[in-house]
Amino acid sequence: MIKNYWDNFYKNKKPPLNESSFARFVLKKTKNYNLKMFDIGCGNGRDTIYFNEKNIDCDGIDKSKKAIGKNKKKYPKFSRKFVNKDFCTIFRKKYKSSFIVYSRFTWHSINYPQEKRLIASLKKNKQFKYIFIEARTIKDNIYGKGKKVGKHEFTSTHYRRFIDPKILLKELSNFMKIIYFKEGKNLAKYKKENPWVLRVIAKVK
Q: Cα angle vertex 45, ends 66, 153, to 5°?
C-alpha cells in the first residue's frame, strides 16, 4: 500500500522542486566533510540534485520506481545518481568509501521492524560515519489523524509513524554520539504547513 501510494503520487503530482530548508541546513554542516552521501527516500530528487550541484557526491535512493524513473529522465546529467532500492536494507553491503546518511521526512515513513533493519545495517557497516534526520514527531498537529495501525502509527492519505525523540535518540546513542538535536516548529515550513519536527545529527563513536 505504501509503495503504491508513492508510485501514484510521483506519477500524478508535482511536489516542490526547490531544495528543502533541511538540505540547506545540512550543507552548512557537511561542506568540509568530503564524504559520500545517500539521500534515503529521495522522492523527486530535489535534495539529491541540490547536494550534487554543491559538489557533494550524493545518491538518491527510493523504493518508488515511478519516482526514480522520473528523476532519471528529468536530470539526465545525474541519472546514475538515482537508485531504485529499499533504503532499509541497502546498507548491508560493503562500500569502498565512508558515507553520510541523509533522511528528510523519510524516517517517519517506515515502521518499527524496518527501522530496526535500517539501524542494524548501519551499525554493522564500517563505512557509515554520520546521519542527518528530519522527521515529524509525536507532538505534530496531525498526530492521531486517520486510522491508528500501531504505536504512534496512523494512515490517512498515507502511512506515518510519528517519531518519539527519546526512543530515537536512545537507539542512535547505542553506537553514535548525538552532536546536534532540535525539536519544534518553524523548521520545515511549507506554504500553510508548519509541522512539529525533530532534527538530529549523529556521529559514529
A: 75
Instruction: Answer for the pair 123, 171: CB distance below 8 angstroms, yes or no.
Output: no
How far is Cα 161 from Cα 152, in angstroms, rounded to an integer? 5
126, 155 in Cβ contact below 8 A? Answer: no
C-alpha cell at 121: 545495517
Site of grid cell 563505512? 127
pLDDT in tens, 16-63: 578 999 999 999 998 778 899 999 999 999 999 999 999 999 999 999
| Spatial CB neighbours of 162, under 8 Å, sequence gap ≥ 6 | 108, 136, 137, 138, 140, 143, 152, 153, 154
Domains of the chain: 2-11+23-204 (3.40.50.150)
